[in-house]
Structure formats: C-alpha cells, structure tokens
Amino acid sequence: MIPYPLLIKITKQPWVRADLVKLAWPRAGFTLLAIIYFFKRQLKYRYTLLIMVLFLITSLGLNAYIRPTQVFRIHGEGSRYLYVPAMAAAGFWAILFESVFEKRWLAKTLVVLIAGWWLWSNTSLIWSKMAENQPQHETAKQILAYFKIHAPEFDNKLVVVPNLIGYHGGDFSQKFYNPSTTFLPMAAEWEKKITYTFPPEKLLVFTYDAATKTLIESGAPFRQMILDEQTITEEVKQSF
Amino acid sequence: MKNNKIIIVLLTALTWHKILWQTFMGEGYYYFNHTFFYDPQGGFTIIQGLLRYDTAARLMFDFLPLFFNDRVWLYFLFLFLVVILVNWLFYRFIWQLTKNRLISILSIIFFVANYSASYEMLARGDYQFFAQRIILFPLLFLSFIWLTKKHLWLSVSLYTVALILGQFSLYFLAVFPLYIFFQWLQSKQHSFLQLLQTLPYLVITALMFLIDNQTYNQNFEMVWNPESIVSNVVYQFPRQ
Questions:
Q1: Three-state secondary-structure class, residue A213
Q2: Inter-chain residue contact B24 with A101, CB threshold 8 Å
Q3: ipTM of the predicted structure?
C-alpha cells in the first residue's frame, strides 16, 4: 500500500534500521493478520477478497518464476511487473477499506483521507518524474523534426543518429522520411560496420547540440579517417 | 454509471495527461519495423506469427501507421484512450465482482494513480510495453464480464483471442477458475458441471503452452524449443 519510493525513503531513515528485505516479513505478517481479521468480519465480500489475494499471489508468483532477477530489481521508477499485481492489490485494499467505511464517521473520514493521500502522493510523483524526463522527449522530437525536414537530402547515405532516438528511432526515420537512407545509432558501434572501401562522402554523422537545440553534422573526422585508410591501403597494395 | 465514467476519465486525465506530450524512447520504436506482416528477419508463416508472444503489438503496427503516419502525438493519444478504456473496464471488473460502487471507486483510485506499478508501463516512452500488454486488457476484462453474464462461450472465445494476441494474457488466467470455484462454493447445488466451466480456460492455455513449445528456430524451421509460453510471457523485449 505504501508507494515504493516512499518505502525506500522510510528504510533510509536511521530510526528504521532495516532494509527492504527485512521489512518484507513484518509487512507480510501484517497483511496476513489483516486478511484473517477482515475475512472473519467481512462476510459479504470474503470470497471476492480471497479471489483478490489469490490473484495477487499468482501474478506475483508468475513474475518471480519467470523473471526473478527483474522482479527483485524494482528500482526507483517502479516496475512494469507490478501492473497486474496492482489490479489485485487495488481490489483487495478497496474491499478492506469498504468494510471500515460502513462504520463510524471517523472511519469514513480516515478512508477518504487515505484515498486522497494515495491519489495526491502518487499523482505528484508521476508528474514530477514526467517533468524530469520531458526534456529528453523534447530533444527526441527535435531530432525527428530535423530528419523530417532534411532526410530527403540524404538519399542512399549512411546517417549516424544521436543515441537518444536509439536504434529503432533510426528505423522510424527511414520508414517515414527516407527509405533509401540507412540510419544507425551512435551506440551501435557503427564505425565497425564501415570498411575502408566505404565511400566517405556517403557518411553523415549527427550529434545533438543542446545549446542551439538542433543537430550538427560532425562527420568530417570520420570521413577523413576513411580517406586516410583508403590511401594507406592503396599504398600498401602498390608496394607489393 | 455515467457519473462513474466521468470520474474515471477525469482521474486518468489528471494522473496521466502528460503522456500526450511524450514521444517514443528506446525500444518504443521497435514495432514500426517489426510488424505482423513484415519483419526484417522475414520468412514467417501466419501460424508462426500467431505463436509469437507479441502478436497484438505487431498487428497494431501494421495498421496504426497507415492512419497516424509519423504523427507521434496520435500514437500517444491512442495509448491514452486505450488506458481510459482499460481503467473503465477495470472498474466494471470490480463492479461485476462486488456490485459495490464504493469498492469499485476505491479500486480505481488505487489502480489508476499507482506510480510504482504503472509509471514504467505508461510514462517512459516505452510504447512496446503498452503494445504488448495493456492492449490485451480490454479483451480480458470483457472476457470476465461475459463470464459473469453467463455467456461462457463468448468469455472463452475472448480469452482465447487475448491469449493468441499476447501471451501476457496468461497473467489473467487465475481470475477465471478462482471466480468459478468461489461461485460454486457459494452455490447451494454444488453442481459438478459448474466447476467444469474452469476447464476451457485451462485447456486452451495448456494447448497454447504445448503448441508454443513446438516453435521455430532462427532458420524458421519447426523445432523443439525448451522455451515455453511461460518464459515468453516476460520476453517482452525484442530478442537480440
């Protein structure tokens, strides 16, 4: 029930003196007691509660069985592996809270406060994380916008693109902006794919300039390198 | 119900509206160049294509680019609308189980505004997670809703289609036998026939498991492959 980043913050407090793994047992114990208590009290929805608990266990179990390393490496950004378990957990907690909600006004207020706190804490976290990442999205958009305008000029060329749009972002540019161009990302060790016979004039290397928010063609040293290699190779050939 | 729809749309919009300003990141572009009918590796038959873990994602990218072209915002609008639909159907799912408005509303708050479970899936530009997984949930929720409306054949058909479209659907399997079992437990007759309703879901999943074990190797020949449907569920990344 506690948002994961908040849980991390709690565990880092000196007064907690426990890591996540150690905290897992008391949390599991508390949850089990809550299940037993509410299962006894909550007659109307007890089977639905059980469905939710078992659905939660099977989905978490499936995660753990299939990708144990991923499941236990849920980092600050949460994990996609929690998407299905979150459905079960949402139903589970909602049933528990409903059972409290029926009682006195104080309990009703408490449930409304918890739901409000959950909504506020998660939404503010989601917004702040998205705002943090938005510059990357803007940069990627600028890269694509550049290729949309200039790609028609790159017929039959090899274009090395900034890593931000990645390997498949190159495919996207090729598909929509110029099918005759080969787009390769920087990270793909593109230099190794070029032999000395490659015509240097067909190589374009783009880097993103954050200051001007545009792409700069910076392939001259690489083209020169290919030319040098070609010259050396020709000299070696002639010497034989 | 109409008010609830508005609540869900508002809640989803409040939490996730910033998605609309995002673009693809990393593997998010993958399916532009790896669709159902086109794959750079080539040579897949329809049957082999249907046995992939990500059929829905591939089919989606056979069609979406025809309408959206390179307008990235349209892809994200599509994602946003599907997420609203999934949230609405999740509400209906909980409603079908409990027939309680408060539980359904609380569930939707806990599920929609969940940073840990949904951020990676929805808000990092990793569109492939959406295409491989979230897109399956309308079918799965509808399958469950039809089960509760006593249309077993329709429910099983929808589940089968969901399973073929994406093996991630396996995560939802537990809900069907659990619901049928607890319904049986609560019924007065304890009819064995009622329990038999669990069989189609289990048999179809098992069949997929068996067929998928007879998958193909890199030379596109049908060979024994120890990788099962279970492991494929989480092979959500393109294989290198």
A1: coil
A2: no
A3: 0.87
Strand partners, A217: A206
Residue B44 DSSP SS3: coil
- Hey, what amino acid is at B39? D
The parts of chain A modelled with pLDDT lower than 70 are 1-25, 27, 42-43, 67-77, 103, 188, 196, 234, 236-240
Contact check, Cβ <8 Å, B18/A127: yes
Looking at the complex, does the CB of residue B216 fall below 8 Å from at least one CB of chain A? no
CA distance B93 to chain A (A): 10
Q: What is the pLDDT of residue B81?
A: 97
Instruction: Give A138→chain B minimum CA distance, Å.
Output: 8
For B147-213, the DSSP string reads HHTT-HHHHHHHHHHHHHH-GGGGGGTTHHHHHHHHHHHHSSS--HHHHHTHHHHHHHHHHHHHHHH
Average pLDDT, chain B: 85
pLDDT of residue B51: 79
> Considering only CB atoms, which chain A residues are within 8 Å of B123?
126, 129-130, 133
Return the residue matching tokens 């289990």.
B202
Q: Mutate which of A56, A66, A96, A124 to disrupt the B interface (most B C-beta within 10 Å)? A: A66
Chain B residue numbers with beta carbons less than 8 Å from the beta carbon of A148 are: 70
Q: Which residues, in sequence order, are CB contacts of A136 under 8 Å at separation 6+?
A: A164, B25, B125
By the 10 Å C-beta count (0-12 exposed, 13-18 middle, 19+ buried), A236 is classed as exposed
Helices (H) and strands (E) in chain B, counts: 13, 0
Q: Are A51 and B178 an interchain contact pair (Cβ–Cβ within 8 Å)?
A: yes
B236 has pLDDT over 80: no
